[in-house]
Amino acid sequence: MDRLMNFLVSPVLKWALLVLAVVFPLISDNEYHIYVMATAFIWAIAVYGMNIITGYCGQLNLAHGGFFAIGAYVVAILTVDHEWAFWPAFIAAGLAGAIFGFLVGVVSLRLKEHYFAIFTLCVGFIIYLLLEKWEELTHGSLGIINIAPPEGFGLVDFTETVPFYYLVLAFLVLSVWLVSRLSRSLLGRTFLAIRISDDLAQSLGINLMRNKVLAFVLSTVYAASAGALYAGVVRFIGPAEADVVHTFDMITYLLVGGIGTLMGPLLGTLAITWLTQMLQSLEEYRMIIFGPMLVILVIFFPRGIVGGFLTWRGRRLANKASQQGQDGKSQTTVNTPSTPNADKQEAGNNA
Amino acid sequence: MDLFLQQVLNGLTLGSIYGLIALGLTLVYGILHVPNFAHGALYMVGAYVAYFTMVDLGLNYWLAMIAAGAVVAFLSVLCERLVFHPLRHAPPIHDKIAAIGILLFLEAVVQMYWGADFRRMPTPYNEILHFGGLTIPAQRLLIIAGAFGLMGALHLYLKKTMTGATIIAMAQNREGAFLVGIDANRVAMMTFAIAGMLAAVGATLFAPINLVYPAMGHLLIMKAFVIIILGGMGSIPGAIVGGLIIGFAEALGGFYISNEYKDVIAFALLVVILSVKPTGLFTKGVR
């Protein structure tokens, strides 16, 4: 049991997951499954963005789906109407995410808690309405077809499912790596401090506004890049991409996996995506299951799969340590009680 | 001039419905400090209950309204008991996510039972009245009269009865209310019941000149949020005034500026107001 537990928090697990992801197209001969996995990875990238602002920084952003759609539309408009190639358009999408994120962030982050959530809900809705009504720019409710796929410079063809899968996987690994660096850096800890208490963070000399805007812009760049990749694989998009339902889906992924944890967004997205695939006949009514699931998770397991596991492990280690500590007193062993805390902290950083 | 008056009348109709929905939202916010994202779903369920008591059971309009009010009030209390009560000590982000969960669930259930079709609710009041150059459908008059009647009744209830006073007391000062022995659970349940009832009656009034479909609450709930931010969260007169402001802005803006973008007006107004004054228009002191 202990071995399994240690394995689950060791870096070996991450490498094992990566190897599994790399060989997945080789063992699975079902192209549809590979396609589903690739789109799940794209959503996971967006959910990592949401985790930065909502999980680490504690601000519930309900416009995330809107920024995803902005990324997708930038690629679509530039490649279809202006005949750009995919990669320059991809970079433009990331920039657009940053610029819009900055503008929205500067206004919205002056608001606290409920006001922020409601404001971003409205921003998401404005984005949706603009995409639907501004026909000259966005083609209106018809959507945009024939979006250029990512070009492979003659080496690979990204219109094929398997090469595209590896492309998305590469972006996912990059995203996770960046977030893991972030969560261990001073900046990541600053975000955590803001989540725990605005006032406390400010009294430590943290510039609230600057850090919140930074977290927000990072998250919107993630969302817009994910949207750009999505446009590259689906190659047809409409205003429905900005529907608030996508934001709610992403909240579900984040909450199931574990809000504010490193592996949570990935595990949550994969778990729910495959669950939905299995319940395909229920696609339309999936919310009958996911709605109450959200409520139950928030009430009983607010930290999701990964967070729940870490709490359980921390408690177990602490118990064992205190037992050892009691035995140890007679045998003059010292220092055991201090290790579990260090361990827990380390686990919190790694997982 | 007649055209202008016609738009004023439309604004009054919209505004009184918005006010009614925002009133429920603001009451719940005043008591529990929860922005209830599920309120729009309760409104939608109210419309469906009324529709099916009229069409399937063949009951008349007023009985359908009472049925809708009762069912949704019960549903609303159920939400409070099962979801918001257990979460009362949780961080604020949890309430919001749970409310979203309820919203998704109710919408999916309604869609499963009754499909996603748009339906038109019948009404016994189809006459069109003429005053000078104005044409006024009777249903619109009913909406205005009904909404303001309900607001008046709510005002009397809150000011003149003991239970109403406990709600006000708790909204004003939580600890103070506990000190004088007010039962928090009872007040919370009462408030949710009233909010649900207001949403259902609003839906029954408004549905005949609108359509009934599972996503009908989306836009309305967002506008209701704009209204209570405008009017100050938790403020009852603020919700009514805010509702009228948004109603007039939409009717006049939709007519004189652009009908296409009239739904954006409320949100654009919100963005401008919050950019200038981050705590809303009529709030005093701290949040």
UniProtKB/TrEMBL annotation, chain A:
Its main location: membrane. Residues 321-351 are annotated as: Disordered. InterPro entries: ABC_transp_permease (IPR001851), LivM-like (IPR043428). Keywords: Cell membrane, Membrane, Transmembrane, Transmembrane helix. It is a multi-pass membrane protein. It holds the Pfam family BPD_transp_2. It is found in: Cell inner membrane. The chain crosses the membrane at residues 7-27, 33-53, 60-80, 86-107, 114-131, 163-180, 213-238, 250-275, 287-312. This is ABC transporter permease. It comes from Alloalcanivorax balearicus MACL04.
UniProtKB/TrEMBL annotation, chain B:
Keywords: Amino-acid transport, Cell membrane, Membrane, Transmembrane, Transmembrane helix, Transport. It holds the Pfam family BPD_transp_2. It comes from the Bacteria. It is found in: Cell inner membrane. Signal peptide: none annotated. Belongs to the binding-protein-dependent transport system permease family. LivHM subfamily. This is ABC transporter permease. It comes from Alloalcanivorax balearicus MACL04.
